[in-house]
Design goal:
By secondary structure, the chain is of the alpha/beta class. The protein has a single domain, classed as P-loop containing nucleotide triphosphate hydrolases (Rossmann fold, 3-Layer(aba) Sandwich), CATH 3.40.50. Helices cover 50% and strands 16% of the residues. The protein has 9 helices and 8 strands. Helix 7 packs across helix 8. The chain binds 2'-deoxycytidine-5'-monophosphate (DC). 2'-deoxycytidine-5'-monophosphate binds next to helix 2, helix 4 and helix 8. The site of 2'-deoxycytidine-5'-monophosphate has 13 residues, from helix 2, helix 4 and helix 8.
């Protein structure tokens, strides 16, 4: 039987990766994996347990001793469990978003999470999104996409998303936080956000999410 494909979707925060990866996975009957949720899950645990975010050794030890898994809930939502606790909504808080960068730059943490991600895609049949999926996790994957959009458009999307959830938000503040995250993601010494040389780049600034998903599906079908 033909092995199911691995589809890598990388790009900066707010480029629409999650929604698009979910759409593509649903359409092709593949499993959707949000790798950022794993980094966020560890950041949540570190904050919860008052682990020193500047202690690389303690963070790596914590990562080694953490069980994380995804579960598709009734109704289709994809939830993440850290040591058995459903932290799906907690990992989206501003505090966790802000500190996840500190976790993501620790070599020992990335090593543990890289293995976890490779194991999730071992049998193929996944759409995985993140920052280094095409460059580091599955460098040999056949399908790699790099999603981008202008900083202003990405901030606008995040603003509308949070507003729709009933949160009181400020566009300028969001744009500032996004620029900070971009900078940290791109300048990190280990596995920085970088486009794989063989990735298909899609600029979604003027495209709808459905249009982007359609483009990806067309490539995969070709
Ligand atoms: O995709 P996201 O915004 O949920 O990611 C949260 C953080 O995790 C972000 O600051 C970058 C980091 N991350 C990473 O370093 N490598 C990945 N493969 C995915 C996310």
């Amino acid at each position: 039987m033909k092995k199911k494909p691995i589809i890598c979707i990388d790009g900066p925060a707010g480029a629409g990766k999650s929604t698009i990866a979910r759409m593509v996975a649903r359409e092709l009957g593949l499993v959707y994996v949000d790798s950022g949720a794993l980094y966020r899950g560890l950041a949540w645990k570190a904050l919860e347990n008052h682990v020193n975010l500047h202690d690389a050794w303690a963070l790596a030890e914590m990562a080694k001793n953490t069980k994380m898994n995804f579960k598709t809930m009734e109704g289709g939502g994809n939830h993440i469990f850290v040591d058995g606790t459903d932290v799906t909504s907690q990992i989206r808080s501003e505090r966790v978003s802000f500190h996840t960068n500190e976790i993501a730059k620790v070599k020992g943490v990335r090593k543990v999470l890289n293995e976890m991600q490779k194991a999730l895609g071992k049998k193929g049949g996944v759409v995985m999104e993140g920052r280094d999926i095409g460059t580091r996790i599955f460098p040999k994957a056949k399908y790699k996409f790099f999603l981008d959009a202008s900083p202003l458009e990405r901030a606008r999307r995040r603003f509308l998303e949070l507003k729709a959830k009933g949160r009181r938000v400020n566009l300028e503040k969001i744009a500032h936080a996004l620029a900070q995250r971009d900078y940290k993601d791109k300048t990190r010494g280990i596995s920085p956000l970088r486009q794989a040389p063989d990735a298909v780049v899609i600029d979604s600034t003027r495209l709808s999410l459905a249009q982007v998903a359609k483009r990806i599906l067309k490539f995969v079908a070709a």
